[in-house]
Amino acid sequence: MAKSTEELAKRIVSFDWSEPGVNMEAQADRMVEYLRRAALWSEVLDAPWPFFDYALAVDSGVRAPEGLVQEVENSLPPHLHLMVRYTCVWALHFRELRAHSGPVLPALPDPFVPLLEMYQQGDSWQVNGAGFIEVGIIGIPRNSREKYVSDTPFPPIK
């Protein structure tokens, strides 16, 4: 697990997006776990759900160094869904926020861990017109934030 914003940037830059992950069910589970974590953060911060810039919602003055953001953005292949690109950058800002001596953050799990684990395996996702989040050929219903709010990790990652 990367500890600093710089380490996280290096980790993201190292992702190989050319080969999809081999365990699609585990990748879909990671997305569902992200949705659960996002629901908790969104509820506490009264912020949009499911994809948003958590660091911006907490403290708009704390951002990852621009050079690291550019390095990550330049490493992402153009075929990735725009929201995948955003979540990589938002993960950097969130890491910087956690390292910053600013506001006390809620005692909630890092929302980006499941997505970064998915990305590290080479998988991405997209949102289709019917409201499903597609991870490979698996469609996950977006539903509502309330559907995903739970203190228990859901479901277990295989």
Q: Which structural category fits the helices and strands?
A: mainly alpha
Report the count of strand segments: 3
Estimate the strand proportion.
5-15%
N- to C-terminal separation?
19 Å
Query: What is the oligomer described by this structure?
Result: single chain
Mean pLDDT: 91
Give the CA-based shape.
Answer: globular
Would you write up a description of this structure?
This protein has 158 residues and is mainly alpha-helical. It has one domain. It contains 7 helices and 3 strands. A 3-stranded antiparallel β-sheet has the order 1-2-3. A hairpin with a 2-residue loop joins β2 (132-135) and β3.
List the helices and strands and how they pair.
Layout: H1 5-13, H2 24-45, H3 54-58, H4 66-75, H5 82-99, H6 113-120, E1 126-127, E2 132-135, E3 138-141, H7 145-148
Helix pairs in contact: 1-4, 1-5, 2-6, 4-5
Quick overview of this protein structure:
The chain is mainly alpha-helical and 158 residues long.
Give the key terms.
single chain; 158 residues; mainly alpha
